[in-house]
Amino acid sequence: MIGCDIGSMFKVTVAGGSYQEGLTIHLQGVPPGLLITEEEIYQDLLIRKPGQGELTSPRREPDIPIIFNGTNAADTMPGFTNAFHTNGTPMVILIPNLDRHFEHIEQYQVTNRTPRPGHASYASYRKYDHWDDAIGAGIFSGRYTSTIVAAGVVAKRILALHGVQVTAYVKEAAGVVAPDVPIEEIRRRAEAYRTIRREHDPIWNFVYKEGRIKPGMRFLDKTPILKEVEDRIGTFPAIPLDAKAIRDKYGVHPELFCPDIASAEKMYQRIIEIKNAGDSSGGVVEVQATGLPPGVGEPVFRKLDGELGRMLSIGAVKAVEIGAGVRVKDMTGSQCNDQLFAEKGQVVFGSNNAGGITGGLTTGQTIVARLAVKPTPTISKDQHTVDKVSRESTVLKAVTRRDPTLVARIWPVAEAFTAIILLDHLMMHYGYQAMWRR
Question: What is the 3-class SS of 316-339, one letter each residue?
Fold first, then answer.
């Protein structure tokens, strides 16, 4: 397998599978001097992980990250305060798999001969034959997206130092489309959503709030905590959540991040209706990024919009559009063009149909990308399939754990993936500019 890396200046390499020991993230290009904590990484993993309500799979992976390499173990000399800060060497993050009990593995074993329609299980078997990591779909499981989220936390931290912010949210789910909301309001509600999820998460309270894992602990001191969490999975007491109070106070839905609360309510109800009928649903994630200078991107084959198209690598994403996207087919040139004006010595645009990118280069406007997310392939309905060994027709009955929709969990992945791409290109851009701008 040779496709598990991305980037040139900020290079991300991932490994692992759904039921292997865990997942790993290897980062090159992380600058020295950053204090990034495991708790900070966890807070983004939290909004992606399953087992948190009606809109996610009941798998209860804690997703506790371990920073394994790339930071100083202590202050390096008297008078220096650089303990636990990045030191410029490759950064390695581990995410152990803790909820992989035998009864779940056995469910996959008895159904792995009959691939799930819409999933990678047939194609991966044809590629890797009987060596294929088919338990929980291996690296083709949505579980691997935790690696993208973890890498994205680091990327977003670096981008923020340069005034760049990346924000994603659910724009459409189960046929319900949210109206446009100002980016400042989206970000305010995104922060509120993160706060709500953190405060009502028993793992965050047990591991971080109660100080069981904190900066400076050795890896071997953390492993007993991981084992304790594994042994207690399914028994952590739920933290009561008053959904109405959360809606009234923060204006967000506690299980689905769409910044328009009325749309979020409709999305949720429609997703549950489809789930109760034994089926699944899809949607659209929108990502916006602000603060990028004009000119970022590398023609011809690494134009920034083409690079953002790499988000098709996210499982279940079937289309990526920039700006007006497919709607441009119905526009005239005068409608589609983003006309330029001069105001007080600054260039401004009359619209943003290009999504902040022309010729593969940023214009200085907001970057806007949308991802179309397909319905979850695993459903509670009989489906026609084959025995992939004997190649005989048969019928599949779903018995594994599943998500009724994936869009509710993919928005943090899209946010992270966008940050990874933008950081890589911003580093290239600044490096190129420094060669001739003195």
Answer: CEEEEEECCHHHHHHCCHHHHCCC
Beta 283-290 vs 176-177: how paired, if at all? Answer: unpaired
Judged by DSSP in three states, 56 sits in: coil
CA torsion, points 203, 18, 311, 412, in degrees to nearest 10? -10
Quote the pTM value: 0.95
Cα distance between residue 50 and residue 58, in whole Å:
6
Strand partners, 286: 169, 370
pLDDT tens digits, residue range 398-430?
Answer: 655 568 999 999 999 999 999 999 999 999 999
Query: Dihedral angle at the C-alpha atoms of 205, 209, 212, 214, nearest 10 degrees?
Result: 130
**CA 214, 27, 304, 306 torsion: positive or negative?**
negative
Closest by CA position to 84, among listed 35, 118, 16: 35
- The full set of domains in the chain, from first to last, is 5-436 (3.60.150.10)
Name the nearest CA neighbour of 208 among 187, 225, 227, 231.
225
